[in-house]
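Hi W., the adenosine-5'-triphosphate complex you wanted:
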Amino acid sequence: MRFLNITKRYGDNQVFDHFNLEVPPSTILSVVGPSGEGKTTLLQMAAGLLSPDEGFIEKEEGEQGGISYLFQEPRLLPASTVYENVELALRSSYKERNEREERTLHYLDLVGLQESLPLYPHQLSGGMRQRVAIARAFAHQCNLMLLDEPFQSLDIKLKYALVHAFIRLWEENPKTTLFVTHDPKEAILLGDAVCCLGDPKQPLLYQKIHIPRKARNIGDASLLALEADLVETLVRS
Ligand SMILES: Nc1ncnc2c1ncn2[C@@H]1O[C@H](COP(=O)(O)OP(=O)(O)OP(=O)(O)O)[C@@H](O)[C@H]1O
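Structure:
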């Protein structure tokens, strides 16, 4: 997916000014940036919910069609169980009940919820609800994933458990993904590249990460150096 020469204004507020950015197919681009610098605007344009004033968004053939969203709040169906919340997302793509059941159990297993199938959202902790939302995002037939701070407001242990659950599911079937976060560590653990917004004309920082996702350890020297660069860019912006 490419953002080509994008200009976007809200009244006098110019958020993007002939801005270019590329997310190679089947990769994750982590987007960080100070508040109000256009992260959500970028996601909304990628989703087609908002049009740029100038420029356009080019999507590869495999990126057209369904989009899976993952938000900070899980947005589950309150009257449906854990199992049903995920199974419902599979109905349009799997007509066979047995196949749907197998897929549902697979996704819920990968996020560690195999024991919680009959529970309703109000019976779950915040972290468990977000696990269901992650499983559902992967169950939904999609060609593009848009993540808007899905791991925010979780304690640090839970946050990394969910980041790893996300990676396990994503690696099974990689989709072009835009991942918005305020947390440089999350950005570095998940992204094939990280970029920092903060200048309407161009990213303040864009850095590819060559270490395979599964081999990343947040204590590695090169990742710590990148994190320091990101933090410095964010603080200076
Ligand atoms: N519908 C709107 N009408 C007017 N201004 C808007 C609208 N949506 C966003 N903006 C403005 O555009 C700028 C970018 O907003 P956006 O929500 O994209 O930023 P963000 O980086 O996602 O912020 P945050 O990190 O706080 O979520 C902000 O100055 C915001 O006030």
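Strands lie at 2-10, 13-22, 28-32, 54-58, 67-70, 144-148, 176-180, 193-196, 205-208.

W.
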